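Before the break, one more example. Copy the sequence into your notebook; we will annotate it together after we see the structure.
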Amino acid sequence: MTAAAAAIGYAGMTHLGLNSAVAAAERGFAVVGFDPDASRIAPLSRGEPTVIEPGLPELMAKNRTRLRFTSEASALASCEVVYISPDVPTDDTGTSDLAPLRALIAAVEPVMRPGAAMVVLSQVPPGFTRGLARAESRRFYQVETLIFGRAVERALHPERFIVGCADPARPLPPAFAAFLASFGCPILPMRYESAELCKISINFFLVASISAANSLAELSERIGADWSEIMPALRLDKRIGPHAYIAPGLGIAGGNLERDLATFVRMGGETGTDVGVVLAWQANSRHRRYWALRRLHETVLSRRTDPLIGVLGLAYKEDTHSTKNSPSLALIAELKPFRLRAFDPAVKVQPGWHPALAQAEDALDACRGADAVIIMTPWRPFSALAPAAIAEAMAGRVVIDPFGVLDGKAAAAAGLEHHRLGAPGG
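Here is what the structure looks like once it is written out:
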């Protein structure tokens, strides 16, 4: 088998592994997708995605002849490069559970070719990759670039590959190098610990931007400024840039950013590194998470004894079914004395979330009879809702729309009291 024709293996068919595997197939490689969970493999073998991502079903169908999904680890013996790619779960404090990852590596290592490259793609703390048993010349770490809701795009068109190596000056194995080169982006080799810390570093700068934007957006609300008017000026500043994370939000969610903050706090405590700025970011995130709850108290809960609240959106962000650290679920947990009706295009209401939480048939049904409607996830279909139709369905007039899904002028024309992040009166 030539380097150009080398088969690529992915162990772990959760969000990260599946999207990465499909992207490799789109690049023309034969791909083996392994997961020890046969119930996860069965739908994939039928061509049915097990996660929600725009473009994923179409790409799986297009590359079906290049994709082989299996629950037999021995199938990876045909691969010159094997990525270890399961999602790493975190608890409520952002601490990673690495036991399943280590168990997967233990299952994969014995069946790999002696000369094949093992590449850890899952996010791990500094020091993890160097501690593995595989020969250093065949052991690597690669920084993942997964963004929920944009996973296919990010896997197909990476900005760069950051590769952790035992010796960054040594050439990568030919099959691994050829695979990375097929994506046509810069390849940055560095020592294991540098690559592992590089992922945390990227997320730190994102968190810093998010925290600054949230603080300034809150001040805008209180002094009569409008943060949406300020953002274009920041994007035109070359020191900040057009792609900066400066849109205000409801704190940090999804798990990955929280994981890196928790990892730094832990390692900082062990090494005597100052962690004060990270503790401040975590506190800011907790404060912002309950912005919608504070607005709801001010506008409805302080005035009505038994309101009905409509909730649009349960996922932590649009275009995904993930609810990890979802601000919507955090809000719902704080509203247990009240009646709720919720709808999300990708997430169904689960028993145990709330004693009086009903599943709505659609977005407009969630608004029907509501004293207030809160749009907690900025799904594109929600922006297609006519404010006049929402006003007609509601009993009250308060719409709390953190991300500005609805057009503010149209909402005002419909008689709605519209609240969004960073806006006066919001």
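The chain has three domains: 7-193, 200-288, 290-419. The domain at 7-193 is CATH 3.40.50.720 (Rossmann fold). Try to locate both features in your own notes.
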